[in-house]
């Protein structure tokens, strides 16, 4: 298995532009998680899905952020409009069962820079 | 909010020495996990210890869990330059939430 695949690896965009981050989880994993990592706030959970259904989006900063999982092999995180404070590394992770009881497999992340 | 807190925030040792990192958490848990993150990469799962276990080994890694003190430690023996990374503990979210909450991490540097 190729692991969790994220794209793009790096994204530089201007403030106000729409940004879409993509994730392909490991086949057969029921759970998908989106995290954001910054120096100031560490790793923050934004949203997670179970069997393609969003379960907890309480970590999504504001309405500018949205996430979808149209099928078991693909998820997107969209920011519209983007702002400089959104600059961070965004990670996608998947887990075969509840993340509480099994380890996560993380992707390599997308480093987002909003100028 | 953070559940686990690592200590120290940064640790620098010589190659071959042992490295010990600690994690404290606030609420009751059924397991605790440790992850490693190399610079510019994603996190890698190292080990999971359940609440009914006191110690667990994986290669050069030794993890302990003291539920009475709500703390865990990660020991890396005979450190190597390749162990240079950040190490995070993670605990289940509150109230049965099916998610992990990560601490701020310990930055470990192994000097040759």
Measured as a percent range, the helix fraction of chain B is: under 10%
- Give me the Rg of chain B, rounded: 13 Å
The profile of the biggest β sheet of chain B is: 6 strands, mixed
Beta-strand content estimate of chain A: over 45%
Annotation field: number of helices of chain B: 0
On the 0-100 scale, what is the average pLDDT of chain B? Answer: 92
Strand percent estimate of chain B: over 45%
Q: Secondary-structure element sequence of chain A?
A: EEEEEEEEEEE
Which two chains touch over the largest interface? A-B, 25 and 23 residues
Q: How many strands appear in the DSSP assignment of chain B?
A: 11
The best one-word shape of chain A is globular
In this structure, how is the largest beta sheet of chain A organized?
A: 7 strands, mixed
Return residue spans of chain A where pLDDT drops below 50 for at least 5 consecutive residues.
none
Low-confidence stretches of chain B: none
Tell me the structural class of chain B. Answer: mainly beta
Measured on Cα atoms, how large is the radius of gyration of chain A? 13 Å
| Assembly form of the protein | heterodimer
Index terms:
heterodimer, A: 115 residues, 7-stranded mixed β-sheet, 0% helix, B: 112 residues, mainly beta, 6-stranded mixed β-sheet, 55% strand, globular
